[in-house]
Structures are given as structure tokens and as C-alpha cells.
Amino acid sequence: MKVLKSILNTVINILIVAVLIISIVVAALALTSKSSGISTIFGHTIQVIVSDSMAGGSDEFEGGDFARGDVIIGKATEFDAYATYEVGDIVTYLGELEGYEAQGEQLICHRIVAVEEKDGQVVYQTQGDNEELCPVPDQSEISEYIPAYKIGSVFHTDDFDGKK
After folding, report:
1. Please, which residues have CB within 8 angstroms of residue 119's CB and are 6 or more apart in sequence?
2. Which residue has better confidence, 96 or 92?
3. 26 or 151: which leads in pLDDT
4. Residue 160: which pLDDT band, with cuts at 50, 70 and 90?
5. Phi, psi torsion values for 112, nearest 5 degrees
6. How far is CA 142 from the centre of its chain?
């Protein structure tokens, strides 16, 4: 009987510790939330996908296939104006798109499809993988490419953390 009681106490203690750890992580995410809407913890972001623009993934690139409601974890970029990205990287950026439910600037998770230099600054063109919802690149309707300082996180790259 004492052995059973000891095992039960151990299981209860483990559950209490697990609940405390989860509570600390949730509190840390809430406290690190920024005005941009991107919460960071230990240099990574956790975000919920709000549309099906990335559903289906890409035939040309790895990664993607995010549907509405999916939760993704990425590397925070801290909106670094000097960061560099490549075609195929999946990023979250602050932007405006016509036809979306939200108005004004919002977080958009799309793939970089072109990298160019304009006025001495490297800029990026993005597009969702779902060709039905995103038949043309985002910036073809806005006529402005995204500078690095508007990119808040990167979710896929062939050269993540300097390793293939």
C-alpha cells in the first residue's frame, strides 16, 4: 500500500511540474508579445496561420503547406534591416493585401519569390503557395517590394542557422 501511495505521489508531482512549465511558457509568450503581433521566446516565434494562402505547399521548394489554424515555429529576425533572405524562404512580414478580412498592415506568411536591389537596398517579393488564392506575387498589386526591416520571422530556408 505504501508503494502504491509513493507512486501516486510521484505521478502527481510530475503533473504539477508539467503544468507549471507550460504556465511559464505561456506567460513568457504573453509578456514578450510585441506591437507587431509577433511573440518571441528564446529567439523563435510561434504563430497561428490565419488564411489558406500557403495551403498545398510548393512544387519547386521544400516546406510550406500551412493551412488556416496551423501553428508554426520560426526563427525571429527582430525586423533586422540588414538581414538577407533567399528565394524560397518562407517569411512573416508586415504588409497590406487587397481582399483580406483585416484592414491595414497585418502579419502575412508567404514565400519569397524574387530578390532585387532597388535604390541601393535589397528588397523582396513574396507570394503564397496556393496558386488559386495567390495567382500573382503580393507586391504586383502593391507595386512595392518588401524591405528586410518589415520581415519579422523566417520559417524555412535552405541555409537555416548556417547549416544545410
Report:
1. none
2. 92
3. 151
4. very low
5. -75, 125
6. 22
C-alpha cell at 10: 510521484
**Residue for grid cell 504539477:** 16
As a whole number of Å, the CA-based R_g of the chain is: 20
pLDDT: is 144 or 58 the higher one?
Answer: 58
Residue 20: Cβ-neighbour burial (10 angstroms; 0-12, 13-18, 19+)? exposed
- Check residue 159 and give its pLDDT: 47
What dihedral angle (degrees, nearest 10) is formed by the CA atoms of 85, 146, 49, 135?
Answer: -100
Cβ atoms of residues 28 and 20 within 8 Å: no
Across the beta sheet with 151-156, the strand order is 40-41, 44-48, 71-76, 151-156, 90-95, 106-118, 121-127, 146-147
What's the predicted TM-score (pTM) here? Answer: 0.69
